Amino acid sequence: MWGSTPGFQIAVAGGEGQSGLYLDQYLLRGVLPIRCLQFIGTNYRRVSTPRTEYNGMNPAWFTGDDSKSVLDLPWSEAVFRDLIDNTAEIDEIKRLCSEKGWSLRIVHEDWAYQISTSVAFSSYLKSLGSNTRLRLFNRRKLLESCGTVERKNLWPANPDGFFELLNMFHEARWGAPCFGAQSLAFHKQFLKNIVDEGGAPELSVIYCDQKAISVLYNVAFEGVVYNLQSGFLEAFHRKLALGTLHLGYSIEDACLSPDIRTFDLLAGGGKNENYKKRLASNVIPLVSVMIVRSRLLKLLYRLKQRDW
Fold it and tell me: Of the residues 149, 156, 210, 298, which has the maximum number of CB atoms within 10 A of its CB?
């Protein structure tokens, strides 16, 4: 969807658990030429794409010992987004930068939040604080007292209707739709592709008296349910946290499935609180790094950001 952006050039194809690479060539502030090497599906500075956590790279790309070495490509900087921190991969990146005299800078740090579903749902609930358990599970009866409650998966029957609801809820809560036209086209193609690769989309909608009040965008793939987006009717009931309650149903489904080991909330937090942190049983540190090879850029960045 973004591959035709002027200045983009494929450098290394992805696959087998590793992200592909491309070069982004542009003028910073219309003056300074930049040739930025990046993971396919991410972009630093120029365009906004759906976020992709847990990216992976092969350090052999930078040693000259691999057929896909990028040492000879004309990049001045490389930005690798959302790598898992404190891994052998990160240690190797640090070693390579030290060996070659490249600057290594942190451009963003975050955390991803996961829930182990290899335990009974009742055991998971006991591990939560009382207020979190109330919002996630105990107020189901209150929801059911509001009318006839149904949950439906709109995949594959009506993905268009699902994304219309998601955008409507997001616009009311955040002042803008969740997905623009380009992102929407990407997600629809993504869902078709993930099915071909053995994944299972869950475009979950909760209805109360046939009115949609909450949506949850999940995808199950290789033993993990990824929670990509959510939206809900904010003013439905002052005692109900509809988004959290909806998550409770999906987490319970994951705990009941013998094929699912993890419910992944991914990175990011809520509008008013980091609800993911309270729900998670495992926290994954993520780091986005910049490798600077250009001498001029090294001098410029030294004034702005800290070395790692």
Answer: 298
Q: Residue 30: which residues within 8 A CB-CB, separation 6 or more?
A: none
Global model pTM greater than 0.85: yes
State how far the Cα of 73 lies from the Cα of 88, in Å rounded to an integer: 25
What DSSP assignment string belongs to 55-114?
Answer: ----GGGGTS-STT--TTS--SEEEEEEEESSSHHHHHHHHHHHHHT-EEEEEEEEEEEE
- Which residues of the chain have a pLDDT value below 70? 1-3, 15-17, 59, 62-68, 270-272, 304-308
Work out whether the CA dihedral 7, 10, 11, 14 comes out positive or negative.
positive
**Sequence-ordered list of residues with C-beta below 8 angstroms from that of 46, at least 6 positions apart, any chain:** 5, 7, 24, 26
Q: Where does residue 40 rank: exposed (0-12), middle (13-18), buried (19+ CB within 10 A)?
A: buried
Tokens standing for 67? 């057929």
What sign has the CA pseudo-torsion 286, 279, 202, 170?
A: negative
Query: How many Cα atoms are found within 13 Å in the side-chain-facing hemisphere of 55?
Result: 24
- Which residue intervals of the chain are DSSP H helices? 88-100, 121-126, 130-133, 140-144, 159-174, 181-196, 242-256, 275-279, 295-302
Q: What is the pLDDT of residues 43-84, one digit of tens each?
A: 998 888 888 899 987 767 766 665 567 777 889 999 999 999
In the beta sheet, which residues pair with residue 108?
288
Give the pLDDT confidence of 228-242 residue by residue, as tens digits. 999 999 889 999 999
Phi, then psi, of 14 in degrees rounded to 5? -90, -175
C-alpha distance across the termini of the chain, in Å: 33
Q: Are 290 and 78 in contact (CB under 8 A)?
A: yes
